[in-house]
Amino acid sequence: MTLIDHKKGILILILIFGLIGCTSIGANATYDIGTTSVNYNPSYNTYDVKLNNHIIGGAISSINTSSVKVGTQTVTWKDAKTGELHSAKNQVIITKEQLKGKKYLAAHLYPNDTVEITTSNNWPNPTKKGTKWLNQLKNNR
Question: pTM for the whole thing?
């Protein structure tokens, strides 16, 4: 075996192992990430919060590890008392840039049934928009 053959062999191994570990390529890139949700509607508790029909955790007190694909998302959740199904009224899109290198994804569920997705490397915090909703609803009581 020559030095060139060794270099080719090493290059082939690097390419193979690089491709095996790479699931974040292309239009259907998938990322494994900690997921949860935050409900800003004080009139009910949520359960079965789902992202593309997969439970993602809820009420900021529970978290799952989920495989999340980039692109358009379907977000649904239920009212814990009545079982009423809610779904995002807005289009929810997750980009590769949002997920790359992040540890957590939170679905923020607003009282008007719109959803905002945030990602972070630390435990998710309520959004400014969500805090504003809560303050507004408390002041209207």
Answer: 0.78
